[in-house]
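Table S2 (continued). Query chain:
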Amino acid sequence: MYATQAAPHHFRNRAVTTSRDFDSCVVRIAAERDREAFATLFDHYAPRVKALLIRAGSPAAAAEELAQETLLSVWRKAHLFNPERASSAAWIFTIARNCGIDRRRRNARIVSQPAEQALDEPDSDPLAEEAMIVRQNEAAIRVALDKLPAEQATVIRMSYFGDNPQADIARSLGIP
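Corresponding output:
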């Protein structure tokens, strides 16, 4: 559980209160793998990310997991942060949103078997059934993609059919 703090965060014995201060923390993480800067970001953003994800419909436990996953991505991908393109807040909340989308996408792909099957019922091939469902979904998505502008369709193709993470798509297309 994250503690909320009314007092400003401190980094290197000075208050961290502005967007530029937090941007600086991300830059220091990228340049020096600065754990103190990361702790400052984590203390500030983890509860805010969790609240955002709860408002987006995630259960509290899942939102907390996703908040931790988000901040771990910040640690790993700090070198990709560009303060000229976006603030650290916008960048971190975008990562959080994408983590939530990726989690929902993974959960939607899980096909569950009923716990109890009749003993005399023949076993069906779950892989064939799953493949058929995937083909039907892909066909419906392709029809819908034809109705979108080309740029939007490209993003969705790369995400859904290419299974590329949102950050990779943005980087390869040069878009936020």
